[in-house]
Write a structure and sequence with these properties.
The mean pLDDT is about 90. Helix 7 runs antiparallel to helix 18 (about 325-345). The protein starts with a helix and ends with a strand. Strands 8, 9, 11, 12, 14, 17 and 19 form a 7-stranded antiparallel β-sheet that branches. Strands 4-3-5-7-6 form a 5-stranded mixed β-sheet, covered by helices on one side. By secondary structure, the chain is an alpha+beta fold. Helix content is about 50%, strand content about 15%. It is built from 25 helices and 19 strands.
């Protein structure tokens, strides 16, 4: 009965954590997940070649080919596209599938090092982790890389001597991890050191034995490298050099910059997974003590996880560019160390004074405290000003020294006979509380996203296919926004992606999709000034925490008519809602506001207008009409830096003849002197509104 119950529980947990990866597969990831837009836009680049092969019959249509930097997930994506068609949801099948395989292999890996119960617990904590789960639906190749790392750990997770063929296979898996995503190079030193330390301390402490083991491991990597160099790297050397040069740009330059980055670093782990971070940090202390006293008792998994976490956190503390996707691989060692801490705690009968107090352990404690205390200071006083850096640094160093000395004194004077017993019931309660709290803290964010997902990328891509019959798109985000239509798309970045000032002409680019984030348009304005001067803004799409602006490089129609100047609603700036395709809209697109408590505000800054009497007309329709005398929207005209309202008009439900039908509303206002105007439309959020356009006409000169 116990075995049957354990089997049922195992199946339930795996079904649950597997299921999390397939919910809302085509939806946008949460906007707050990262301070970088890469996880919204980069997936399009990774599936670019697979899409090309399906639609155009050739892998390469330009010089932006991630198929070489990540071949295995690329060909897997091609098979998915071939069977299920091209789309955003289909693109995310690969990370979701690889994540499920990863969790399954991790279970058997932890089972070897711990036991089935804590192996299942580790899989549950990783599988329900909010950050890890969200990136299990993002095709940025992080999850496939981690899968191969876990496969390597599986081959290395024996409690006794590791066999030669297992070292060889672990080496091949590590190279596949590198071939999937180059950031594996940050993990590789931890694997090397882990193998060396584990084997060195297992038997007679001689250098020859770990050297031999590392040789077999390196042979596994080398065998795969020869094939990779011959088939992939040498023929595409220029592509790899371009990727490498771009990544080197983000390295921290100079001591001053290093300090700036250190004090402004995002507190990624503690703020998003506090329980697991604290447990893993505590486990680092325990492992450091064991490494200096009983190193033979440390498993290879513990060695690798400790080296992995320490080395990467030091690196990411001073590196300038630290997007959330770069931290995702570190969730794995954090979970492994946290589960190891819970497992060791479950085996303890009491808390007592350690038998030894090696001085090197307290050196480790000192640096451990430097990092922990500086992190707490950043939490309390974030951001830390540049003037405060020296003071904060000295404060951290002094506090860490004092705390280390206090810990040493406690070690010295703690009575040997003093023990704090740990009853079985108490241990079970503490472990259960920590697991439930950690799960609840993570799952609330996932639940919030899963119950109200957004499909902005999918809608934009589909609408681009409906509005345009034959265009060629450019821009970093264009490749992911081409997945739901058949338009060719190409990325460009000065001296990096599709380099050359003939980019627009070479690929017959007709439209650009550029993000206001990081001012992507500046590169085009500098490299293609004449074309950009004549470009017209067709729409502004709120996406992530920025706007994606759709430019027509060769506009056929002017926005000015005899009756006045027309400003399309889809060209307004807005935070909520989205321009959508509408056959009844004048420009085939209209901005759709959403039903929400806070409402939606759209805004469009204009140029300076001379004095006179103006008529403002605007066209919109409600998707539904609420009961009663409900205010639905307000439009106003403001001027000056203080945004003082010159005129405004409120619209109520009774002002509309019927739902789902456009109506035009008009009012007049007078400018006594030349002013720079600003148009605003505010939706109360009581009903969805389709905002088509605003027409601004000067009807009378000033008196």
């Amino acid at each position: 009965m116990k075995k049957r119950g354990a089997l049922i529980l195992t199946l339930v947990i795996f079904v649950f954590i597997f299921g999390l990866r397939w919910v809302n597969l085509g939806a946008d990831p949460p906007k707050s997940l990262s301070t970088s837009m890469g996880y919204y836009s980069d997936p399009g680049g990774y599936v670019h070649n697979a899409r090309n092969k399906i639609l155009y019959g050739q892998w390469e249509t330009d010089k932006w080919n991630h198929m070489y930097t990540s071949p295995i997930p690329h060909y897997a994506t091609y098979l998915v596209f071939l069977v299920f068609g091209i789309g955003i949801a289909q693109m995310n099948v690969i990370p979701a599938l690889f994540s499920c395989l990863l969790l399954l292999i991790l279970y058997f890996t932890l089972k070897r090092s711990l036991n089935p119960t804590y192996a299942l617990l580790g899989v549950f904590l990783l599988g329900s982790n909010y950050i890890f789960t969200m990136f299990s639906q993002s095709a940025v190749r992080v999850i496939p890389m981690v899968l191969f790392v876990v496969l390597a750990l599986y081959f290395l997770s024996r409690k006794q001597d590791i066999l030669k063929h297992q070292l060889f296979l672990a080496g091949t898996m590590c190279f596949l991890a590198f071939a999937t995503k180059g950031t594996f190079l940050l993990v590789l030193p931890a694997v090397f050191l882990g193998i060396a330390c584990f084997i060195f301390f297992q038997g007679p402490r001689k250098v020859a034995k770990p050297s031999l083991a590392l040789s077999f491991f390196s042979m596994g990597m080398g065998a795969m490298m020869v094939v990779w160099l011959w088939l992939i790297y040498i023929p595409q050397k220029e592509t790899f050099q371009a990727f490498g040069e771009s990544n080197l740009f983000w390295l921290t330059h100079g001591y001053h910059k290093l300090l700036q980055v250190f004090w402004f670093r995002p507190l990624f782990y503690f703020m998003d997974m506090p329980v697991l971070t604290c447990l893993a940090s505590l486990m680092l202390l325990i492992l450091a003590y064991k490494a200096l006293t009983v190193p033979r008792k440390l498993s290879l998994l513990s060695w690798v996880s400790a080296f992995w976490l320490i080395s990467n956190m030091v690196y990411y503390s001073v590196i300038e560019y630290r997007a959330a996707r770069h931290f995702v691989p570190l969730v794995l060692p954090i979970v492994i160390l946290a589960v190891q801490a819970l497992y060791d705690f479950s085996l303890s009968n009491s808390l007592r004074k350690p038998q030894k107090r090696p001085l090197l352990f307290f050196v480790f404690v000192y640096f451990w405290l430097v990092y922990a205390i500086s992190s707490l200071i950043i939490i309390i006083a974030r951001p830390v000003s540049e003037q405060a850096w020296p003071i904060r640094l000295y404060l951290v160093l002094i506090l860490s020294l004092v705390a280390t000395l206090l810990m040493y004194i406690i070690f010295c004077f703690w009575p040997h006979k003093l023990r704090l017993s740990l009853p079985q019931g108490t241990k079970i309660f503490i472990i259960a509380f920590l697991v439930i709290f950690s799960f609840g803290f993570n799952f609330r964010s996932y639940l919030k996203w899963s119950l109200s997902p957004r499909y902005d990328r999918q809608h934009i891509s589909q609408d681009l296919g409906k509005v345009f019959s034959d265009i060629r798109m450019g821009g970093l985000v264009s490749m992911v926004l081409a997945l739901e239509n058949a338009h060719p798309a190409h990325a460009y970045k000065t001296d990096y992606i599709n380099r050359g000032l003939d980019f627009l002409e070479r690929f017959d680019i007709t439209h650009l999709l550029l993000t206001t984030h990081a001012e992507e348009i500046r590169g085009y304005q500098n490299d293609f000034p004449l074309v950009m001067q004549g470009a017209a803004v067709l729409a502004r799409y709120p996406l992530w925490q920025t706007h994606v602006v759709l430019y027509d490089l060769f506009p056929q129609k002017s926005t000015s008519t005899e009756s006045g100047e027309i400003h399309q609603g889809e060209a307004f700036f807005g935070e909520d809602g989205l321009p959508r395709y509408d056959t009844d809209a004048s420009g085939k697109l209209a901005f759709v506001t959403e039903v929400q408590a806070k409402g939606t505000r759209l805004e469009l800054p204009l140029e300076e207008y001379p004095a006179g009497l103006y008529r403002l007309s605007y066209r919109l329709k409600p998707a539904s009409l609420p009961q009663g005398d409900t205010r639905l929207s307000r439009i106003d005209v403001t001027a000056g830096s203080r945004q003082r309202a010159l005129a405004q008009k409120d619209l109520y439900a009774h002002d509309f003849n019927r739902a789902d039908s456009y109506q035009e509303f008009t009012f007049e206002f007078r400018l006594k002197s030349a002013r720079q105007l600003n148009l605003r439309l505010y939706s109360t959020g009581k009903a969805p509104l389709w905002f088509d356009y605003v027409s601004l006409t000067r009807v009378e000169d000033p008196d």
